[in-house]
Design goal:
globular; 30% strand; single chain; disordered N terminus; alpha+beta
Amino acid sequence: MTIIQIVSAQRCSWCGEPVEAGDGFRAYEPAGERSAVFCRLEHVVPWALKGAHWDAGAEPPELDGEYRCSECDRALDDVRVDLIRHRGEHRIADHFCGVDHLSAWAKTGGRWR
């Protein structure tokens, strides 16, 4: 008997653990069409320190509204990093000038400072 396991989870870009569709964090760089997945917010920090290795070819979700950096409050355009928190069916978005501001924000607890 052959058992085929279908893997629906993505893997954390830092630790490699599975991250289900309704859980974790997804980072997108729309201008570069790149993404990264994290099982925990804390994994953004060592990932950024080691050089922010992105996966290519990801399509970011459609986001509406004005983009402002969650770290410095600067107005943003397509050159930004989006971090989407997946909580079940809910999606919570934050935006950043770049990986440095994403990492600084994550170091201080993100939205839960």
